[in-house]
Write a structure and sequence with these properties.
alpha/beta, 10 helices, three-stranded mixed beta sheet, elongated
Amino acid sequence: MELKYKVGILGLGLIGSSILKGLAKNSKYELYCNSNSSVEKALRYTRNASSNIEILKDCDIVFVCCELLKTVEVLDKLNKILNKNTVVADVASVKSILLNKKYDFNFILSHPMAGVEKQGFDAGQDDLFNGAKWLIGKKNDILEMIIKDLGAISFKIDMNYHDFMCAQVSHMPMILSFLLFDCALDNSKLIASSGFRDTTRLAMTNAPLAYGMLKNNEENIKKAFDMLIDKFNCLKNISDDEKIKLFEEISKNRAKMYDKDGKNVFKI
């Protein structure tokens, strides 16, 4: 009989349910889910689903996919039931609250750079991670195998820089999307088309998620906004010809950053 890896998923929102759906048909894995609200839905994909966190105690690896503000509390609970060989990977978008945490299990900071503005179990997609970079703080065979089987690409980074990097390409764009929508007057929204639609898509992000990012990464988000303001001030102070050249250069670089399927192919 083939030995299966026991994979636990705590929290079945967008990311957790996408991991579940992405692995459900893979015979290498036996899936165990812990959720307070989506147990019945999870049972469509695995027979091992419960609102009791104890269901995860014998897993080889556990993905912690709860709300950002509850991550530390959940990790403390897991520390009481998991053995020292269990790999635990969070998916939180802010790492400052986790960088210096020590646990008895094998804790790995991780962050899949994939998502949509919708939330909840039903928003989960079995192909959500296809072609996406999955950031990890250290190498680990089972974690990297699962990431690959989900269609993503393991990308090891120094997690000390994670929050500033994400502030620039994820958190600031989300906050900016909210503010752009809020800045537009109602009579202006009457004539809005695809440009406004696309640049404010992230304003539909789950409010507690947006708040959690801002609360826990505010300083880095401020730095990112300062960089944006500096860029705008520079733009104001250059000639018309220089403005055109700058826009052309940015447009050319942006066109090269994503492939025809919308996947990031940027290289330094």
